[in-house]
Amino acid sequence: MDFSVLTNNMDAFLEGFKTTIIASLIALVCSFILGTLIAVMRIAPLKALNWIGTVYVEFIRNIPVLVIVFFTYLAFTFSGMTAGTIGLTVYTASFIAEAIRAGIMSVPKGQMEAARSSGLSYGQAMRFVILPQAIKIVIPPLGNQFINLVKNSSLLGIVAGGDLMYQGDLVNAKTFAYVDTYVFVALFYLVLTIPLSFGVGYLEKRLARSN
Amino acid sequence: MIEFSKVNKFYGDFHVLKDINLTINKGEVVVVIGPSGSGKSTLLRCINRLETISDGGLTVNGVSVGDKKTNINTLRRNIGMVFQHFHLYPHKTVLQNITLAPMKVLGQSQKEAEETARHYLDKVGILEKAGSYPSQLSGGQQQRVAIARGLAMKPEVMLFDEPTSALDPEMIGEVLDVMKALAREGMTMVVVTHEMGFAREVADRIVFMDEGRVLEEAVPADFYENPREERARLFLSRILNH
Ligand SMILES: Nc1ncnc2c1ncn2[C@@H]1O[C@H](COP(=O)(O)OP(=O)(O)OP(=O)(O)O)[C@@H](O)[C@H]1O
Ligand SMILES: [Mg+2]
Questions:
Q1: Distance between Cα B39 and ligand 1 center (Å)
Q2: End-to-end CA, chain B
Q3: B73 pocket-lining for ligand 1 (C-beta < 6 Å)
Q4: pLDDT, tens digit, for every residue of B37-63?
Q5: Which residues of chain A lie closer than 8 angstroms to B48, CB-CB?
Q6: How far apart are the first and last CA of chain A?
Q7: Whether the Cβ atoms of residue B124 and residue B145 lie closer than 8 Å to each other
Q8: Domain residue spans in chain A?
């Protein structure tokens, strides 16, 4: 292993690392918001909303994320970073929506009935009764989606998104040390995903105990 | 205060409620009985629009339940409901279960809502459980919390759907006692139950349902001793002989 590949190109690696973190964080927040909205649309007592939600999920989930990222990059005149982040958000939101919907559906029907019959609106019942119960069920699959999101952010490299993968390719072109470079790139990804993975496991255990 | 006139309800092709005419007056305690599947729960759930009626008129305090202009949340404030399986919120303490609706629907302050909650918890005899979670309570205690939760909204009517049928026998009495006390205080109550002791002691009227129809209405003594309808007689002999 040639550590000079790492030390000589530290700036490039760190630059890519930073971009990967930023793109992942933005996509994480946005896909969580979008995914929650779509999940609520899918189960709201309104046919038109159900339909929009279902079409979104079925459509997006069944297209390769690479195609979605290419599409956002080429169809609009976004930078690689913007296009990649939007593509990731759109794609991940469909999975998050499904995880959240499954969580909401797993809360017994009587909970909604009890809440509504006491005069709470649908929104209040969701917020105070259903979602707090659903979140416990949703956290493990959600955590896995976030880990996938970080890994999938490597697709930014393909549209010159300036992320870790992209910087790795630049280092390759300069040093020809392909194997070493990818090992370092992988290590940088692990620095992000392993703590995430432990975090999810920890939350999962804590939630299990609170029951 | 509750008036069904020619109410029909369908689930798809299935005719669950057939031409229901029924009036429940303020302060009355009405017990609904009938075989499984006869539409008792459906009848009850139409009153607070957990189910919608297909045609006919249904009013509560003169307000049409089915009318699009009726604010359903406002209507429901006045109608408490107690379910067979309690449906307490498992992530909230007993106190929080009771204060949620008064705070969010009636806009009470936390202090005010908690005072009311404690008052009703005391009334149903489990004030000491205010800080517990539902999973830490017995079935009978949970159902009493559910009753307190309904009462905390100070409703004009309370609906009960088989409130004791999910309970172990030794806990049925404690829940029925709470309901009897409530009946004696003049609460308007519609109760689906096969507990004859309760019905005889506090019901003003028995409504017997069969296959989606109200077949017979009578005062408890008459109904239990001398039902007019053959179906009712058959049904009574079945529940009494097991
Ligand atoms: N959501 C639904 N969709 C279709 N059919 C339903 C639905 N809910 C109830 N039913 C049917 O309507 C009929 C009446 O049901 P309901 O629950 O009102 O009966 P019930 O008298 O309360 O019976 P039980 O004593 O078993 O509780 C039953 O045959 C039931 O299968
Ligand atoms: Mg029933």
A1: 6
A2: 36
A3: no
A4: 999 999 999 999 999 999 999 999 999
A5: 117
A6: 48
A7: yes
A8: 4-210
What is the tens place of the pLDDT at every residue in A58-100?
Answer: 999 999 999 999 999 999 888 999 999 999 999 999 999 999 9
Residue B162 CA: nearest ligand 1 atom is: 27
Q: What would the pLDDT profile of A109-162 be if each residue is shown by its tens digit?
A: 999 999 999 999 999 999 999 999 998 889 889 999 999 999 999 999 888 888
Would you say residue B66 has pLDDT above 90?
A: no
Let me know the angle formed at the C-alpha of B120 by B115 and B121, rounded to the nearest 5 degrees. 95
φ and ψ of B227, to 5 deg: -65, 140
Distance B231 CA to ligand 1 centre (A): 19
CA-CA distances (angstroms) from residue A2 to A74, A164, A183, B152? 37, 19, 10, 72
CA–CA separation, A191 and A202 (whole Å) = 17
Calpha distance A44→A110 (Å, rounded): 16
* Cα dihedral value A188, A189, A194, A197, nearest 10: 160
Please, are residues B180 and B201 in contact by the beta-carbon 8 Å criterion? yes
Q: Tokens for B206?
A: 């028995």
In this structure, chain A runs to a length of: 211
> Which element (helix H / strand E) includes B7?
strand B2-11
Write out the two tokens for B219.
Answer: 């005062």
CA dist B51 and B41 (Å) reads 10
Q: Is A110's CB within 8 Å of B153's CB?
A: no
Tell me which residue of A22, A114, A164, A4 sits closest to B80, measured CA to CA.
Answer: A114
- Spacing of C-alpha B123 from chain mean position: 18
What CATH number should be reported for the domain whose range is A4-210?
1.10.3720.10
Ligand 1 closest atom vs CA B192:
22
Residues in chain B: 242
Q: Is B87's CB within 8 Å of A113's CB?
A: yes
Confidence class for position A210, pLDDT limits 50, 70, 90? low
Contact B105 A118 (CB under 8 A): yes
Nearest Cα residue to B222 out of B236, B239, B238: B236
Are B83 and A119 inside 8 Å of each other by CB?
no
User: ipTM exceeding 0.90?
Assistant: yes
Q: What is residue A211's predicted lDDT score, i.e. its pLDDT? A: 57
Q: Distance of CA B45 to CAs A28, A111, B73, B187, Å?
A: 42, 15, 15, 18
Closest CA to A115 of A101, A98, A102, A132: A132
